[in-house]
Amino acid sequence: MTTTRSALAAGIDPAAEAALDGLLLSMADDEFVIGFSDSEWTGIAPILEEDVAMSSLAQDELGHARALYELLSELRGDGRTADAIAYDREPADYRHARLLDHGRGDWAMTIARRYLYDTADGARLEGVAASSFAPLRELVDKIRREERYHVMHATTWLERLARREGQPRDRLLAALVELAPDAATVFTPLEGEAALVEAGIMAEPMAALEARWRATITPIFVGLDLPMPPAGNLATGRTTHGEPFRWLWGEFTSVRRSDPEAIW
Amino acid sequence: MTDTQPPDRDVDAAFGGDGRTLEPWEVFRREKDGDPMRHGGSVMAPDAVLAVHYARELYGRRQESVALWVVRRADIHDLADPDLLQPPLDRSFKKPGGYVMRDKLAAAREQSGQAKPKARSSRPMPTTDKADR
Hints:
A: 264 residues; mainly alpha; Ferritin; 10 helices; 62% helix; globular; B: 133 residues; alpha+beta; Ubiquitin-like (UB roll); 2 domains; 4 helices; elongated
């Protein structure tokens, strides 16, 4: 805990402040990492229209990440900018869900990951939509209006891959198998979560949000005859990042690291 | 899976396209409330749902539209026959403005030896010459 608190932190229960920091960082890192992963399709998507669509979704996510990092920067009030938080950390210090740690893979992998993430993110956003922390509540209200389309896009593709026998369905099933152990990691419990719920910053603990998420996607998975993600071990869901992320980190920090003092 | 019914038949029925091949869809957009729909362009898509997604990305994601229509190009009935649209005979009497009088008036003036009236703005208030218009 810093000795001088930012103006933004002043109104927050001190017990919840560190946990709020963790919540914002995890949300921002999630959006940042999936945004970069999906931007890898720019220029190589199957058709021009999908190229534009996927690139646009990726840009949306980076925009959400920026807004969340800015909020975090303001909350911390330590002079570190959103860019510094986004780019100037070692790979081990990122707190995105392990679901987003897998390499880009094929189109089915991208769709499976997007669907699992977008629906989980939707449940999490719902959990903070009525947050007592007004800046987060106001931001989430805008983010949710864009995320609605993301879920539509991911669902549209999930249906098409799942219903088309042969390569589309086979590849989707393979992707879901690979992602299964990490599918629910967006709901990795946050340190100090109870204080967030107590302060009304989050409506419910992550475990309850996960239950809501499962209730939302179960009819879709049953309808498409897809295997529901099993309950995973969430203990290290945001802290152990593998080789594919280290590679992605090298990519997205390469320009920043080439001249850390540069002014853009 | 029986061999009488392709396993993917429900896909085609469900999504409003053949789902396998890309085809062009025409996109109409309304720029602001009260404006008419205007043709914006087209997208390629395998079915209607994706066509709407792509139309949104290409014609709506920068807040340039308040509404979109997406129509399969194959569903548009085409008429471009010049005999039907640009008939060779004078059909100007069918226009809401009636006959085009300019040529007939010019011919009448020439016959009577009368000069073309000057522009109205260069003379005093017109009084008696309305009959020839």
